[in-house]
Specification:
Elements (H helix, E strand, L loop, with lengths): L1 H11 L5 H4 L12 E2 L14 E2 L9 E2 L3 E4 L7 E7 L2 E6 L5 E5 L8 E4 L8 E6 L3 E6 L12 E6 H5 L5 E8 L16 E7 L3 E7 L6 E7 L3 E11 L4 E8 L4 E7 L5 E7 L10 E7 L5 E7 L4 E7 L1 E3 L2 E3 L2 E6 L1 H12 L11 E4 L6 E6 L6 E6 L5 E7 L2 E6 L6 E7 L5 E7 L1
Parallel strand pairs: 1-2, 3-20, 12-16
Antiparallel strand pairs: 4-25, 5-6, 6-7, 7-8, 9-10, 10-11, 11-12, 13-14, 14-15, 15-16, 17-18, 18-19, 19-20, 21-22, 22-25, 23-24, 26-27, 27-30, 28-29, 28-31, 31-32
């Protein structure tokens, strides 16, 4: 499954959006203007050339593509990464093992004990090229922990079952009162962080304010005061994160106080200024699921996990889910990957007229049979679907509301186009 996602990532680099191509062709540079540069936003400004973080979005809810039962050993799964062609997770209480598995046979997992460590409250896992990082910084019991830390494990030693581990200790620059607050009553809890080329950035889980604050600290062993950077009202509790540094993309997981899970998409931001770009909340159709971990390789397909939860008549078992954010992020990601050498590939699929009123014509080349297509609206909902084959076909879009849509053909080259219904 992991290799399949890597193949999709390779295919995605061939997707061309005609609306974005002009950004990479030679010509006079337009006058710089601040505004919302995301065509999927309800306040999109076609004249804006620099994103000022003002984009607003319609509400959206998505369902999972697939789900798998996780083994009993992972009942409190609390973080995810993808590495070594496997998915890795850990529990958030007492257990000092890392677990690695493939979705083709999750029950055939491998455990890697981190001998010599103590799991006070492991809440998140992240990585860079050399190390895995585990955040032992859960702080919801009383909000007064003075032993917050991040474990750093050398990857090669972990595979050899002889993990070399060091520790990054920290406190929060804004926390001066360490009086016990009682359960779930602090803004200094944390369950999400990302590792960049030179730093660690924490995203807090703020039980009182329902915001998330960013704190930064070095990623080298030592003792530090994590510096406050920014805060944003996410209207919920942030529980996990995944980061593609080269694409300026972070996706956070979280849930409301009523256990309504959501994703929080951060993209097109200035480096290390994660709340400066687009900020979009997408609800997950997984009521009462305590979503904790998230991981991606290509920025389009994501794995998320939820831990076991039982209350009254409700029991939710620990699971792994696959979700598809193509409708929300492909426009942005493919705008990054377009270059002049790719121009010939756009002729594989032609849509005209575009914009259109009642009907669009589709010309598809090099297809060996019928290929499935889907049309998504800006909330990520499929509004039309069917099959097309090589040659020219017409599709009636007269029943769609005026606006922007994404036309997606999954084979042979996973092609995506923006279409506009007048």
């Amino acid at each position: 499954m992991i290799r399949d996602l890597r193949d999709i990532n390779m295919k995605i680099t061939h997707i061309i959006f005609g609306c974005c191509l002009f950004l990479f062709l030679p010509g006079p540079a337009p006058a710089q203007g601040l505004g919302c540069t995301d065509p999927l936003a309800i306040n999109y400004d076609s004249l804006a050339t620099q994103n000022d973080g003002s984009c607003l979005y319609s509400s959206a809810i998505i369902s999972v593509v697939n789900s798998w039962d996780l083994p009993e050993a992972m009942i409190e799964t609390s973080g995810l990464i993808i590495w070594d062609d496997r998915i890795w997770t850990h529990n958030d209480d007492n257990d000092i093992n890392l677990y690695a598995f493939d979705t083709t046979d999750i029950q055939n997992y491998q455990a890697y004990p981190l001998t010599g460590t103590v799991n006070v409250d492991w809440e998140e896992i992240s990585q860079d090229n050399e190390y895995i990082y585990i955040g032992d910084f859960g702080n919801n019991a009383n909000g007064n922990r003075t032993d917050l830390k991040i474990l750093r494990i050398e990857k090669n030693s972990l595979l050899e079952n002889s993990p070399v581990i060091d520790t990054i200790h920290f406190s929060y620059s804004l926390q001066t009162d360490f009086s016990p607050t009682g359960p779930n009553n602090t803004d200094f809890d944390c369950e999400a962080f990302v590792v960049t080329s030179d730093s660690i950035y924490l995203f807090t889980k703020e039980w009182v304010s329902q915001k998330s604050s960013i704190y930064s600290l070095p990623k080298e062993p030592g003792t530090y005061v994590a510096q406050f950077r920014d805060s944003f009202d996410v209207e919920g509790l942030i529980t996990g994160s995944t980061y593609l540094e080269d694409k300026n993309l972070i996706v956070l997981t979280g849930y409301s106080m009523l256990l309504q899970p959501f994703l929080f998409l951060l993209y097109d931001f200035q480096p290390a200024d994660f709340f400066s770009g687009n900020k979009r909340k997408v609800l997950l159709n997984l009521p009462l699921h305590q979503v904790e971990g998230i991981a991606t390789e290509d920025g389009l397909k994501y794995f998320i996990s939820n831990e076991y939860f039982s209350y009254s008549i409700f029991t939710i078992h620990q699971k792994l889910h696959l979700i598809d954010l193509t409708a929300f992020l492909s426009n942005y990601l493919e705008g990054l990957s377009v270059n002049v050498s790719d121009v010939g590939l756009q002729n594989q699929l032609v849509i005209y007229p575009n914009p259109a009123n009642q009907e669009i014509n589709i010309k598809l080349e090099n297809s060996l049979g019928e290929e499935p297509y889907k049309i998504f609206d800006i909330s990520g909902r499929v509004v039309l679907s069917g099959k097309i084959k090589s040659g020219r076909v017409s599709i009636n879009i007269g029943d769609l509301q005026p606006g922007t849509y994404l036309f997606v053909v999954e084979q042979p080259e996973y092609i995506i186009r923006k279409i506009i219904r007048n």
